[in-house]
Write the structure tokens for this entry.
Amino acid sequence: MKFRRKPRETVDINLASLIDVVFILLLFFVVTTTFTRETQLRVDLPEAVSGSPAEDQVLKQVDIAISADGVYSVNNQLLAKNDLAGLMEALQKESAGDTSLPLSISADGKTPHQAVITAMDAAGKLGFSHLRMTTVEAAPVP
């Protein structure tokens, strides 16, 4: 006895709705993602009433950021050692020996004074002469 087999149905998965969902998710992630470049250290700059804004310079410059707990960052790269020798080594590497570059120190308002002095001492020992301290402009007092 020979039974007649039913022909197999071809199973198709409709991918149109899946593709729609993937594109909507992609759009969601693109819209919600921030594309800002943030430094590795969070620094709340102290306020100053007087001062002048920095000129836009095309030249390379060296930036030292000091966090509230005294952690150093040179050109947005954290230092392995937070001491004078480590800071001098990082400054020498970033400036490639060119001490005529402008050096800017951005210290948090709650940074210990010793950390700022150590940064200034490292710059002075290496021979940097264009030193700048960054602050934010204070709100006018009514």
